[in-house]
Design brief:
By secondary structure, this protein is of the alpha/beta class. The protein folds into two domains: 185 residues, Glycogen Phosphorylase B (Rossmann fold, 3-Layer(aba) Sandwich); 186 residues, Glycogen Phosphorylase B (Rossmann fold), CATH 3.40.50.2000. The strands form two sheets. Strands 3-2-1-4-5-6-7 form a seven-stranded parallel β-sheet, sandwiched between helices. Strands 10-9-8-11-12-13 form a six-stranded parallel β-sheet, sandwiched between helices. Helix 8 links the parallel strand 9 and strand 10. Helix 6 packs across helix 9. The radius of gyration is 22 Å and the shape is elongated. The chain starts with 5 loop residues before the first strand and ends with a helix.
């Protein structure tokens, strides 16, 4: 008789990021496949949407890097794995991954990790800390870029033929990120709430406020556009997450370039498809490589042209000049030129780009494909045990 698959996913917080939504989607997909699904997390906004009848959730301090809490989490994960007869422990971040690694060794469970970022390191200690993400039976890379990063920096961990590394592209919910599902009244309400002038060309930059997300590059580019007499409204959408100094720097830069009437700061949007629907184009200006580039995929799914830095995952998710556009990394002048060229296109051309973007996402980045591929790999691991 085949073993019933029971998967325990461990993630620091269940928010709205790519790793978190992937965990959420997979947890519910597994229940549809007649599997048992469990999540350990410290909390998060997405937690309220988890179907508790299908997915069992444990609240533990797995967000902490405190060695004593990591040890405590290890003991508790061991108890959960044994009590619920877990087959697979799947870690999605480094601190909880150390707890999961030890727990999997003690309980003889299969261990899976998803390598969600580049996890840069400047010394041997940091590299050792990062290496927990490649000490599993199955290492999942979310893009070819991350796959190459792992092979370049952690190749010594793959001498063991029993350890497997493969790419499973991150996926998004194409039914949720669908412009045909957004009600016009939602768009009107959002526009009025944030004083958005929809008679202007709307340029949206989503992402938390942190230096490497490129908000300063975005502001510099819009300053160039204004000097060239372009009629637009820029929207910087994202929380500063306590980075008050950085937000003040951004506000100061807006004032310096006299863009107060041209750029809106919006802290959050509970329904991102609404924000995408308002935009004429979306920008992703990250100055460091995105592991996947969720904004690029979401905007394509919403049929909105995307402009992104020519580094990291966006090189894989965007077909340049067809489903979106790439600009020279950290170059506000090049960004301004690309945006200006898009603003000069006619309605049908922009629609054509949007259609191609949606088709690109349907073919490659559907969340069901991500979940089904992961489930298939789970089954292979179980069959080997």
């Amino acid at each position: 008789m085949k073993k019933k698959i029971k998967v325990l996913q461990v993630i620091p917080k269940l928010g709205y990021g790519g790793a978190e939504t992937g965990c959420y989607d997979l947890a519910h997909f597994l229940t549809e496949q007649k599997c048992k699904s469990y999540i350990i997390t410290s909390g998060g906004e997405l937690l309220k949407f988890v179907d508790k009848k299908k997915v069992k959730v444990f609240r533990l301090p797995v967000h902490s890097k405190n060695p004593f809490l990591i040890l405590l989490n290890t003991i508790l994960i061991v108890l959960i794995a044994l009590f619920y007869n877990i087959n697979i422990i799947h870690a999605r971040s480094r601190a909880p991954a150390w707890s999961c690694l030890i727990a999997s060794k003690l309980t003889f469970k299969k261990f899976v990790t998803t390598f969600h970022g580049t996890y840069n390191f400047t010394n041997k200690f940091k590299k050792f800390y990062n290496s927990v993400m490649v000490r599993s039976n199955l290492v999942i890379a979310g893009s070819n870029f991350i796959f190459s990063h792992i092979q370049t920096n952690y190749k010594e961990f793959f001498q063991d033929e029993k350890r497997k590394l493969l790419v499973i592209f991150r996926g998004i919910n194409i039914n949720y990120f669908n412009n045909k599902k957004v009600l016009p009244i939602k768009i009107d309400q959002f526009s009025k709430q944030h004083n958005i002038d929809r008679n202007k060309f709307i340029i949206l930059l989503p992402g938390r406020l942190t230096y490497w997300k490129g908000q300063k590059i975005f502001i510099e580019a819009l300053s160039i556009l204004k000097n060239n007499s372009k009629n637009f409204q820029g929207i910087i959408l994202g929380s500063d997450q306590g980075r008050n100094v950085y937000k003040k720097q951004l506000i100061g830069l807006v004032q310096q370039h006299r863009l107060n009437n041209d750029i809106r700061f919006i802290e959050k949007c509970d329904e991102m498809p609404t924000a995408y629907s308002i935009a004429n184009i979306v920008c992703s200006c990250s100055s460091e490589p995105e592991a996947f580039g969720r904004v690029s995929v979401e905007s394509q799914s919403m049929e909105v042209p995307i402009v992104a830095s020519n580094i990291g995952g966006s090189n894989e998710t965007i077909v340049n000049n067809k489903t979106g556009f790439l600009f020279k990394n950290k170059d506000p002048k090049d960004l301004a030129e690309v945006i200006s060229a898009i603003m000069g296109k006619d309605y049908n051309s922009l629609k054509s780009i949007g259609f191609a973007g949606r088709k690109n996402v349907l073919n490659k980045f559907d969340v069901d494909k991500m979940c089904h591929t992961t489930f298939t790999e789970y089954k292979k691991l179980i069959e080997l045990s």
